[in-house]
């Protein structure tokens, strides 16, 4: 087994803007990892869903996204043809004056769409949903497959009873730990100080008292996280626990797929060796019994 090496996959033109592309080998490994994580969810009973690529800014605002993470937020809008919106070749931009007001947001996490999709519904106490989506975060700097403006996030989301939401994180913490061991990928688990659904205020205080988010780090980089939200999304989206009328509890397990590519190619030195390692780890962990 090689020691961790520093060879990074070759750059692509969009990389400096946080928008790298992947060639055939990177694409195959991204799919293999995503299939692996999705299968963990499905085996545990998760319903696979496909979510829209944009969400109404009004909905994300309702979930406090713009209050907690204004510095990361990216919005989308159309050109205002009535105001003769024109592209400015000097700046390489469409000026604000040529755009319609932005009423759409690019999601920063895949699970927001799941809570919004379940709005106003009753859920069974053991509901699980799995989704993968493009997520967008404006960062201070971008770096290869490690820190991007747009990246893929696979999530397995629990909705239902508090016990179910808590057990979900325990079980997937074990699953991630076992997978990392089978991969011989050294991961550290750490409590994180920035719950993705609330940066400041009372919940951040609560976070310090009782962590609501743990990250799995390879070297200095978080490649996955487990997050509990108690009844925050159940309350905001009127998702109720069947038979109780009470807001459902939720929790989510998130995998940043490109960061897994970055960690695995760094650990194994090439796309081929990283891909072999994932196949071997999957074989070692198969047959995967239900996570429940
Ligand atoms: P978080 O919701 O902050 O826990 O993010 C979930 C996962 O997404 C992290 O564990 C990372 O793997 C990944 N991630 C977060 N931000 C970025 C980024 N800017 N570029 C690439 N991956 C990211
Ligand atoms: Zn999430």
From TrEMBL:
Gene3D superfamilies: Bira Bifunctional Protein, Domain 2 (3.30.930.10). It comes from the Bacteria. SUPFAM superfamilies: Class II aaRS and biotin synthetases. Residues 1-20 are annotated as: Disordered. This is Seryl-tRNA synthetase. It comes from Streptomyces murinus. The lineage of its organism: Bacteria, Bacillati, Actinomycetota, Actinomycetes, Kitasatosporales.
